[in-house]
Structures are given as structure tokens and as C-alpha cells.
Amino acid sequence: MSEKISRRDFLKLASVGAATTAVLTGCGPASRYVTREPYTKMPEYTYNGLSTYYATTCRECAAACGLIVRTMQGRAIKVEGNKGNPVNLGKTCARGQATLHGLYNPDRVENPVQQGRAKNFATEAMTWDAAVQVVADAFKNNDPSEIGFLLGMAPDHLFDLVSDLAKSVGAPAPVRFGVLSMFESRATLSKAAENLLGQSGMPFFDVGGSDIVLSFGANFLETWLSPVAYTRGFAKLRRGDPKHRGYFIQFESRMSLTASRADEWIPILPGTEGLVALAIGRLVAEAKGGAVPRAFASVDPAAVATQAGVSLEKLEHAATLILDAQHPLAIPGGAALGQSNGLFTAEAVLAFNALLDNFNQTGGVYLSPLAPNQDEYHRPASAQEMTDFIEKMKSGAVKVLFVHGVNPVFELPKSLGFAEALASVPQVISFATFPDETALASDYIFPDHHGLESWGYQRVVTGTTQSTLSGAQPVVSPYFNTRATADVLIAAAQSAGGKFAEALPFADEVDFIQSKLAGLVGQEGSFLAPEINTFAAYFQQHGGWWKKDAETQVITASNALSKSLKVAPAEFAGEGEFYFLPFVSPTLAEAGANKPWLQELADPTTTVMWNTWVEINPETAHELHLENDDVVKIISEAGEVEAPVYVYPAIRPDTIAMPFGQGHTAYGRYAQGRGANPADVLGQHFNEAGDLAFAGMRVKVEKTGVKKILSRLESRIGVYGEGMGEEH
Amino acid sequence: MTVDLNKLHAVGAIAEEAEGKWGMVIDQDLCTGCQACVAACAMENNIAFVGEEDAGYGRSMHWIRTERFWEGEYPEVRMTDYQPMLCQQCGKAPCEPVCPAFATVHSQAEKINLQVYNRCVGTRYCANNCPYQVRSFNWRDYQDSRIRPEITILANQFNPDVTVRRRGVMEKCTFCIQRIHKAQDKAKSEGREVEDGEFTTACAQACPASAITFGRIDHPESLVSQLARMPHTQHHLEELGTLPSVTYLKGA
Amino acid sequence: MVRKFFEWIISPMGRIAALIAGLSLFTLAAYGVFTLQQSPEQPIQFRHDIHVNLQVQCLYCHPGALRGASPGLPTLTKCWGCHQQIAKTDTSPRLAVLKDYIANGKDIAWVPVAQVPDFVHFNHRPHIAAGVNCEDCHGDMSVQEIAVNPQVMNMGWCLNCHKEKAGDDEVKLTKLTDCGTCHY
To answer: A: neighbours with 3+ CB pairs under 8 Å?
Structure first.
């Protein structure tokens, strides 16, 4: 109906301009060089009103869900899940759906630019030849030991390429970071597995096979590790056995989306999750009879109940349910591990699983298999390791820094001083697709393609027991004048010559990817191919390669129970009457703020759209004379941040919570200047595994007297046209 | 094909009015409120985003939303199951008789409620009369590049099978009728009937928990009609006599 | 105020003014309808009659009609596939335009002639499958020089044919006259 951008106008525009149109042909090796073709030169199958579908991999997080993207006349129209991919089996999350708003985002970096660390985004375009020359000069003019690479959690093929490059020329290995891994406390989880089981790797919790799940802060239905896979597990827990509906208890100080789906939400004092696990474990062990294992021997359930602020009956009730169950399961994660005693909590919950004899069992804990071309599990850097890297940058040991796929200026707590450290690096080159905070603080931005325009692969770290390598291919040709970072690095290395050219002897990115896939040719799997070209074609067609059967690393946890655990109380930094709980926004996550439809989605628990809020218990709000939409200032030892109040009925009175995802100072029109960033008040406190103790802060709350009306979906329900500012 | 609906032990809409053709079952015990359905629906159906201010005025245009309600007070507070709410495609729809322009009419062929955009004159009587509050009105030309220049780029994503609505037009869930037509067309060209599970709506397709099932409610062997005959089903506000086509399953 | 206006409108001057206003509105409307019926300016004055009389099938250049919603407009390569072997291409001034396009590698921005509004979803495939011929809607192209739309493609025209095709078949009639068949 719209005059300007109607369906028909699409067709007209498409026929007029080469600018909006392009096509990819087939999937054989000959077609790997993607060129833009004008509409009228397209093959017939693209202009007959029928769609073409391409398999690729989602890049919105590192879980590596397989996608099938519906394209029409060279435009990506709709994202659908790849039914073959073992991680998501045809399903997608909201962020996966909205990835199209990233692809066709009006605020992308359209050309390579010399940003010059200016406050505003530089728009004057460079040529790609000049850009490649800049990178080549950076390689040539610096000692390899002074080159730094900072990469995001995805894509893996670029990580491999940079790792190979760094290794061959003698540069430090690339540092890999993602804020989701920080909030997931990945380092803590894998360290706990290593300590207790003697094997490193990412534990996978088989929620679907279990019949009672005790989750200690793990927000596995939101952003934790592999949300689509865990949601599928949750569905199986509920409906997998038609005769028996699985039960789910969540211990968490605030009712998160995950907790809201639990049959019982038990709000306990932050930091006591490990103790509660041990206490329930002891109750179970006593009921089972025999000697109480060493790990549980010293704990007193009654004392723990008092300490955690929960009645002993609730713990006994949980123990009874576990004793009646066939496959009970306990999951540690999220804010419970983001405490000073997070490692103890993770170990305690894993020991609890050992008590339940859960390792390598259906409905238990597995160590995720390594992906097909993986030699060992590469854990992303913990916040402690990032701090070390920041110190290195400050000391002047990094002369040139390459940044791809990560936005630490926004993501890391301000108190870690990443922005200042970045300023002391003589040359910073960003490969950002969007003009985010880190890109603006760089000397150059050489934009990579969007994920849907890119080649690549991503290893599946967890989410399935089938060893899986998820493949990515461009579903549309590049919309803007962007270039694959792998191609830029290869071209620059060859231009730099010497060791660099030897390190990357590839024609292009696809050549490199095929060299990494070569080892899989002839192996039994989702398909069998006799040689690399056929393999690569199938790899694109199927959206990856995976083993047909479940295959896990066998856990030999014989002595997990005989170890005594170092019971550590949680320490909270700073002063103030409230525990501060930052959580990743379930709809926006770390990089969704620039996608308008993700902003428009109502937060599942509060229904707030387009903004940041502070969750406060109604009792507490009443005492502080706070109402909905009153802007409060949250003050910690590290900083302060302002946001409006949302009176939240399901949070402990001594805790306030705030979603992470907004508060951008750059990153395009939909994100910039919207909401607040809880990372601004986080301090430099780490747990023993080096993860940030992000939930280990105490804060003060001050009323500012200002009101900022939050847009909420819930006010609309019931009375039509109910205005802003009214109570629901 | 005529089906003796009494033999199917059909409930709600189907039994009373023999109205059902397409139906949906939503398992509230599985819904995690993750919003994947909402995003998928928006992408499939070219739904406009309205921005923070208009959203605050209740003008957001979600065709599907997840509702949740609170029970009790801390610490015994409980959240009800998430309740995905979309057009219930009523057999006797309260929106239909009030439209002075016959823009919201009942499809005799597909047995759903239609919103004919080119007929709609924007009286909003239908939204006023909808007990489920699932109709949304275009208060502005959200998808017009003269008003929002950035739409020129975002419009590349638009689904050409769905009309882009303008200001002053009411809109709502269509049960992805463009997908229904596509599947029917394909089946017809191959000389067969549409098979159960051959296609589904965008929301059901995305749902990570597979909480949403869509299909022929008048075929007793289809998954959706089997689920609709399960115990613990519920039709929202059926006491109003709306005969909804969406069946909700509750937890045990 | 209103009363004054009515008094003025029944006066002679008022009547003349009303007549002029009415006439100009009618003229405008007539002009609007007229322009809608004109064939649009095409980048190449493509002669349908010559091609059709040379026995080129409709579906050769518009193959999508058989399989999908949109019939498609021919690509430059399709034109050139034949024309590079035709001697006249080098001599005809009309075809010089085509040669130009080829030489510059530009695209031909064809202007679609037969259109329905945005809120109508027309699919060619079922119409062809139901035995409707191209010329039933688009006119006899063997006599048309530059393509024009032979009729106003409005809803009445669609429905007349739909009703006729459905005949006495109730189910078919319901489907073919359902709003949701074309509008969504």
C-alpha cells in the first residue's frame, strides 16, 4: 500500500539498479568468487518470482546455529533454521531472525575509512588497495612480537587464519574475547571441569534427558552457551516423556526468564549457590545411606539454609524430589559463577552431579566433543586475561592492534581501562561491520562483510553431542563496499612478503577454508566426498559437516567425590545496601541494540522496549519512595549509572538488577544514546578462574527526581489506548 | 471432503460451528517467552517497528506477543506461563460485524479472518471490539522512506509476498496466508493435497521449544488436531462465543 | 456562513463557477484515465508484433509464467543470444540501442505494462495451469507494436472471469471469490 517502497517498486528498483541486486550461482567450486551481477543479467531462476534458499551459519552469537536463508532476486528475505544442523535442528532465536536487520542496517560501515580516532564516524572513503597497503605496512614496519590481534567469538575460520599467521611470523597468539563468555563465566565452568575431572573441555548438560533439573543461576533459556539447543532440551524435559513431565527448580536471586519457566524459583542470597548445592547434596547422600562423601561431609544444611535466606524445608523438598527421580541434573552457570567464589560454586555443583552419578549418562553431564577440525578446546579469554592484555597495551608492548568481531570499549567494564589502553597503542585497525565504540576509537576501519555475506565456518563448542562444524557461505553478495577480513589479511601478508607471505600462501579466503576442510575429505559423516571440491560443494549445500553419531569425551570422574572442596564465602566489593546483578538482555544480547526489531521486542519478563531499566523489589521501592519510571542513580566503587526503575515483583529485596545490552555511545542510530550500560559500574574483581566477579558488587541507589517513562508492552493489554505513564 | 466433526470429538470452534480449517495449538508449558516467534513474524510479514515513543503509547504493531501475569507477592510470587497471544481467527469474530467498510471479513475458503487492507478506512471499530487486543493500527507511515529515509535500505528485506501497509490501515495476524497459498499452489501443481507439516507459519517454524503447531484442524490425523484433542486444553475467552481457532495447552 | 455559501451557489455566478469546477474535475479525471491507458516510454521500442509473428513463443522470453508468480522480463543476454546472429542488428537504427546496451554492459530498465496494485497478489502459474492463454489478458501481441495494457485490470474484470470459470462448482466459487485469495 505504501507508495514509496511498495512490492512493485522493489521489482522496478531491482530492474533499474545494479546497486541493489546481485546473485550467487550454484555451489560448485567455479562459483566461489562472488561477483555482483545486475538484475537483468541474472539467471532465469532468480527473476521468476521464486525464491532461492542458501544454507549458512548464524553469526549473532558463537553457538553456530545453522540457517537456511530465503533469498529473492539477490536479497535476503527471511531466516529459517537448518533442519539438518544438530545444534538447532531447524529452529532459530529472535536474534537469528533479526540478523537481516544487521545485513540491511542503515548504519553499516559502507567503505574502508580512515577514522583517525575521531569522535564522529568518518565517512570519506579510501580505496581497498590503499587499505591493504596500510595493513601490509603495519605488518612490515613492526616487529611481529609487537603486533596484537583481538578477535571475537565468531567466526572460527578467521581465528584459525590469524592463529596460523601469528604462529608462523612469531607474533603473540590472537586474544579472543566476547562479553557473552564473560557473563556465561565460561572460563570458570571449564576450569571447574578441569579441576574436578582432570579434563578440560566444555561440559554439556543434557536437560532433555533428565527428569528433574536444579539450575544454580544458569540462564540456559536466554543467552547461555547455546540457547536454542538448551531450549530444545527444556521442551524435551517437559514433554519428552508423555507420562512424566520433568520438574525444574531454579536458584537465583532474581527471577530471570529461565527462572520464570521453573516450577519453583527459590531466591537465595547471591553467592550461596555452591553451599546450597552442597547442602542438598548432603541431604541426598544421607538419605541414600552409607558414608557421606568427603566433599559434602563438612556442610551443615540447616546453617546453609539460614545463610542463604531459604527455609530448610525447601532444601529438603528438593532433596526428596531428587531421590525420587531417575535422572536428576544440576547446572551451574551465569551470575552464580560471576562471584568471587564462582569457581567453588561450579565445583560444588559438578561434585553434586558426581554424587548423582551423572557423568556420561543420559540426562547427565557430558564433555562436549571437539568439533571436526579442532585440536583442543580454545577457551575465550577471561576478564583476567583481558586485564593482562590491557596492561600489555598500556605498557607500550603492542605497537599495532587489529580488532575484529568484538567491541571491548562497550563490553568491558569501564574500570578495566580498555579505552585508555587503546589510546596508548600507536596504531589500531578495526575490521568492524558496524561503527561501534571500538571502531570509532581506531585509526582505520576496514569493514568486513556482514555474516550473511561471508564465507567461513564455526566450530560447535557445545549444544549437541555430535561433533559439528557449521559452514557459512554468502547468501547475498556484499551490499556495500566491504571486503572479507581474511582476504584483506591474505592480500596484505602477500604484499608484505617474507615470513608473512609464507604464512598465508592462499589465493583467497575460500582457498584457506578449503585447506582447513581438506582433513575431513573421505571421513564418515553427514556426507561423504571423495575430494575437496566435491566436499566443499556439499559443505555449502548442507551448511556444514557433522558426525552422524553422538560422540563425547568420556569423563573419568572417579575421584571427584573424594576431593574436599575449598568452601569459600562470596566477597562483595564496595559499599551499599544492594547486591548488584547485571544480566544480559535476553532479546538484545550484546550486539542486538542496532537492530530495530530487536529493540521493539518486549523484554519477556518486564515487557520494556527500547530502553534500560533497574529492577527493584516492590517493598524496597516503597521504602525508598520510588515508583515506576523514577530515574535512579546507581553508585558503586567503580562508577555510576542512571536508569529508570521498574518495580519488579520477583527479585530479592536486597538485590537490584539491570540488563546489559544498551547504553551505546555509537553503533548506529537505533543504539546510540539509548539506555544505560551496567558495565559502567562494574569493578575489577575476579574469581579464581579469572572470570569477572560481575555479580559481586554492592551498590547504593539514589533517587534523582527525574522521571523517564519506559515504553512497555504490558500497558497496552486490557484497556485500548491506555497512555504512557500510567500503572498497568 | 466433508468430515463428521462429532466423530472427531472436536472441541470449541470446530464442534459448535464446524468452522475450523486451519488451526493452531500453542503449548504454554513449553513457551519460554524468548520472542523468537515475534521476531520471525515481523520479518515474514513486513511488520513496522514504531520506535520508543509510539511504543510507549501502545502503538507497537506486534501481530503476536507473549503475555505473562504475576500471582502472589514476594517471596511466594509466581509468574504464570507465558501466553503467546495472536489473532485467534475466531469462527464468530467480534471484529467482523462492526466493520462499516467490510474490510475485515471471514474467508469462506480458508476459514480465517481476513483484513483487506485496500478496503480498510481506519475506523478502528474492529480493534475496539476485539477481546484479545490483537489488532494493530498503523498510526503513521512507518514504512515510508519519505518519513523514514533509512527504510530504503531496510526495505531490501521486505517479503514481496506480503503487502506493505500504510498509515490508517488496521492489520493483524493472517495465519501466514501467503504460506498457505504457496503450499496450496505447489500441491496443486503436483496434483495432490497439501500434506500435514509440509509448511507452517513463521512463528511455529522459528519456535525453539516447538511450542507452536499449525495445520489442518479438520483433518483428524493431522498433528494439530491430535494435539487439540489432548486433555488440559483451553480456548481463551471462549465464553464470549468467539469460537477461536487457537487452542492452548496447559502444563500438567 | 454555510447559509451564505448556499445563497451564492444558487446565484447565476455561483452556478457558472460550480459548472466550471465540475468540468475541470471531470477533465482531470478523464486525463488521468487516459494517461493510464498509454503505453509507457520504454528504453527500447520493442516490437512485440515482429517477434510474435516470427513464431517466438511468449514463454521463451517470459518463462516464469509457467512456474511461478512473476513471468519475468528478458535479460540482455537473452536478446543478444538471437540478435548477434541476425544481420539486421547491424543495420537497423532501432537495434542500435540494443547494441549500445551490449557495448556498455548496461541493463535494460524495462517498464512493466500490465500491472495490478500492490495489495493484489497475482500468481501467473495457476492461471496458465487452468488453461488461460496469455492473450486472454494481455491481448493479441501479434498485432501490437509497442506493448500496451489492453484493459483496465480491476477487480470486476478479475471476478467476472473467476465466476465464469467456477461455474456451478460451489467449492471452486468460494475459493475463487474469497478476498484472501488475492488480498493479504
So the answer is: B, C
Instruction: Tell me the mean pLDDT in the region A411-415.
Output: 94
CA distances from A243 to A240, A246, A375 (A): 9, 10, 42
Average pLDDT (B209-230) is 93
Name the residue with higher pLDDT: A569 or C105: A569
Find out whether B151 and B143 touch, Cβ atoms under 8 Å.
Answer: yes
Cβ–Cβ gap C119/A49 under 8 Å: no
Q: Are the C-beta atoms of residues A23 and A74 closer than 8 Å to each other?
A: yes
User: Which sequence spans correspond to the domains of chain B?
Assistant: 5-249
- CA A55 to chain B, closest CA, distance in angstroms equals 16
* Residue C120 CA: distances (Å) to CA of B111, B171, C117, C183: 20, 16, 6, 5
C-alpha cell at position A96? 537469528
What pLDDT, in 10s, does the model give residues A610-644?
A: 999 999 999 999 999 999 999 999 999 999 999 99
Strands A630-635 and A697-707: antiparallel
Give the angle A552-A557-A563 at the CA atoms, nearest 5°: 150
Q: How far apart are CA A477 and CA A20, in angstroms?
A: 10
This model's pTM is above 0.80: yes
**Which of C107, C115, C118 shows the shortest C-beta gap to A38?**
C107
pLDDT band at A44 (very low <50, low <70, confident <90, very high): low
Q: Do residue A164 and residue A19 come from a single domain?
A: no
What is the span of the domain harbouring residue A405? 113-178+380-448+483-505
- pLDDT over 80 (residue A5): no
**Does A700 share its domain with A621?**
yes
Q: Do B105 and C179 touch (CB under 8 A)?
A: yes
Q: For A434, how many CA atoms within 13 A lie in the half-sphere containing its CB? A: 29
CB-nearest partner of B189 from C118, C125, C175: C125
Residue of B33, B157, B211 lying closest to A76 (CB–CB): B157
- Judged by phi (left if over 0) then psi (alpha if -120 to 50, else beta), residue B237 lies in left
Say what the pLDDT of residue C150 is: 81
CA distance A498 to B196: 62
ipTM rounded to 2 decimals = 0.91
Cell triple for B51: 520506535
Chain A positions in Cβ-Cβ contact with residue C72 (cut-off 8 Å): 44, 47-49
Q: How far apart are the C-alpha atoms of A60 and A223, rounded to whole Å?
A: 11
Whether domain B5-249 has CATH 1.10.10.10: the reply is: no
Task: Let me know whether A125 and A93 are in one domain.
Answer: no
A492 in the same domain as A413: yes
Mean pLDDT of chain B: 90
Residue pLDDT, tens place only, A636-662: 999 999 999 999 999 999 999 999 999
Subunit contact B117:C175, Cβ cutoff 8 A? no
In A30-170, the DSSP E strands lie at 52-57, 66-72, 75-81, 113-114, 147-151
A578 - beta bridge partners? A699
**Residue of A1, A8, A40 to mutate, interface with C, max C Cβ within 10 Å:** A40
Nearest CA in chain C to A50: C68
